[in-house]
Write a structure and sequence with these properties.
Strand content: 5-15%
Shape: globular
Low-confidence stretches: none
Number of domains: 1
Helix content: 40-55%
CATH superfamily: Dihydropteroate synthase-like
CATH class: Alpha Beta
């Protein structure tokens, strides 16, 4: 087990006490929720400042859409999108910055430009150099589960037991990371809600998040504006799913997630404070019973 502290940039996050909010900043023309809105560095900087004011603790910047059936972009194209934004945000904000990429070349340049963390949806599987980079730079890394790739992940995904299979994946990836020399305390686990998952799989993951906490590491969840929320609520457009996202985010926090990745931070920040108070009360009661 590791101490329940995640050190990211100049911040220490006590992830078993307070929910960490990761604000999403997509600088892409085609992301499922906000594609094209923040392509210009000025707009992206405004959004980053807004996310921080609303309660985001980390800003996650990505330059390649990973929506279902999306196509990959080149490293040079990704870099041209994210680097100006990372540099601008770094000058303006003191909060940690995460780079959302599967490419070591992009991650390395982003870290040089001021990013503090790597969010790899492939779980360090798409670029063999990524694990070495994370070890050498000694930065936190998000290991996410995804069946397939964004271009094919929603083509009939199937699981016998989605929670069990994801947990087996986490154990394999943890062994890989430790063999590579990555510091255990720098690892974050993300079950990948919506990434190669059926409707019922997403619900099972949220209900089963506590299973992943057995590794003694922070668990991140990203239900924000996902299609399964649209199926539940009948909200066809992603931007209409913020209320549903708040409900899902609170459920994730109460079930074991310590980091929530969100598009609309303002909508969920207060609700997550309530979830934190409930979690604290639960821990106090449990401790009193044990004593």
């Amino acid at each position: 087990m590791t101490e329940n502290v995640l050190i990211c940039g100049n911040r220490k996050f006590y992830w078993d006490s307070n929910t960490i909010i990761m604000g999403v900043l997509n600088v892409t023309p085609d992301s499922f929720s906000d594609g094209g809105k923040f392509l210009q560095p000025e707009k992206a900087l405004e959004q980053a400042d807004h996310l921080v004011r609303c309660g985001a603790h980390i800003i996650d910047i990505g330059g390649e859409s990973t929506r279902p059936f999306s196509k990959p972009v080149s490293a040079s194209q990704e870099l041209s999108r994210v680097l100006p934004v990372i540099k601008a945000v770094r000058k303006s904000a003191s909060c940690p910055i995460s780079i959302d990429t599967t490419k070591a070349e992009v991650a390395e340049a982003a870290l040089e430009a001021g990013a503090d963390m790597v969010n790899d949806i492939s779980g360090l599987r798409m670029d063999e150099r990524m694990a070495d980079l994370v070890r050498e730079r000694h930065v936190p890394v998000v290991i996410m589960h995804m069946k397939g790739t964004p271009s094919d992940m929603q083509k009939a995904p199937f699981y016998h037991d989605v929670v069990e299979e994801i947990d087996e994946f986490f154990q394999e990836r943890l062994d890989f990371c430790l063999d590579k020399g990555i510091t255990r305390g720098n690892i974050v686990l993300d079950p990948g809600i919506g990434f190669g998952k059926r409707f019922q799989d997403n619900l099972d993951i949220i209900n089963g998040l506590e299973r992943f906490t057995r590794h003694g590491l922070p668990v991140m969840a990203g239900p924000s504006r996902k299609a399964f929320l649209g199926e539940i609520t009948g909200r066809e457009h992603a931007g209409e799913r913020d209320s549903a996202t708040v409900g899902a985010a609170v459920a994730c926090a109460l079930n074991g997630a310590s980091i929530l990745r969100l598009h609309n931070v303002a909508a969920a920040a207060d609700a997550l404070k309530v979830a934190d108070a409930l979690r604290l009360r639960r821990k106090m009661e449990s401790s009193a019973q044990q004593n």
